[in-house]
Design goal:
CATH topology: Neuraminidase
Radius of gyration: 17 Å
Distance between the termini: 38 Å
Length: about 260
């Protein structure tokens, strides 16, 4: 019921805040990999050639290293049931994981998943990535926070807009070739955001990438972007999705 109310609220916000018309890049599926269909994925990232994910829901939240070929976890730990895991990124040899409403983040050793320390924040945790200098966090609004990776203090706030209008429901994040990619929750769109101006400079429209018979209800939405800079693999997936898709972005017409 809580997730259903959250979905309705998000849909109303999108109808009010999203632009009516936008140009969008399309995609070509290069390869399809299996994914755990019970994983409510919230964070997704490559680090040192390894693929990691953070899965949410109270009583089901985990941190995993995935075997991309099989979809099975190589390593996995479960969070205490009071935590709803959210965004995930790497920093050096560490993994950093957010929680939704618990205002708590976790720092793990990337190789062993040993918990090294915790940190706290006073807003909701949604998506997480990093640009080599700072962590970048979303909280479901139009704001992206730049966070010092040592102190976890906010360095600056970037407001995301499209044609001057705020873009809200920014969710899972990935930093790719100098741009911020963000899932827009409850949509099939990925926003490509300038880290300098906050403008959405492109959209990727992934409508139809998961066949209708494989969809598993209103909460099984697109969420998950992972980029491997060593191989230039761009992976996307979603909550409760049975597949991970390696895609190539096909440039479309600019927005109106």
């Amino acid at each position: 019921m809580l997730l259903f109310r959250r979905a309705l609220l998000a849909l109303c916000c999108l109808l009010l805040a999203a632009p009516v018309a936008f140009g969008a890049d399309s995609y070509r599926v290069i390869r399809v990999y299996p994914h755990d269909p019970d994983a409510f994925i919230q964070g997704f990232c490559f680090s040192h050639g390894h693929l990691y994910e953070s899965d949410g829901l109270y009583g089901q939240s985990t941190l995993r290293e995935d075997d991309l070929a099989t979809g099975h976890p190589i390593k996995e730990i479960h969070l205490p049931s009071k935590y709803f895991a959210e965004g995930l990124t790497s920093w050096g040899n560490e993994l950093i994981q957010l929680t939704w409403r618990e205002h708590t983040g976790f720092v793990y050793d990337r190789r062993t998943f040993k918990l090294l320390r915790t940190f706290h924040y006073n807003y909701e945790g949604w998506g997480l990535t990093q640009d080599g200098h700072d962590l970048i966090e979303s909280d479901g609004s139009d704001k992206l926070r730049y966070i010092d990776p040592e102190t976890f203090k906010t360095v600056r706030v970037l407001h995301v807009t499209y044609h001057g209008k705020p873009v809200t429901q920014l969710n899972e994040l990935e930093y790719i070739n100098g741009m911020i990619y963000s899932n827009v929750w409850m949509t099939n769109r990925i926003a490509i955001i300038s880290p300098v101006t906050g403008d959405v400079v492109h959209w990727i429209n992934l409508t139809g990438i998961l066949p209708l018979p494989e969809e598993r209800g209103p909460n099984a939405v697109l969420n998950g972007i992972a980029w491997n800079p060593a191989t230039h693999q761009l992976l996307v997936t979603g909550k409760l999705w049975p597949k991970i898709f390696q895609i190539e972005v096909i440039p479309g017409k600019p927005g109106k």
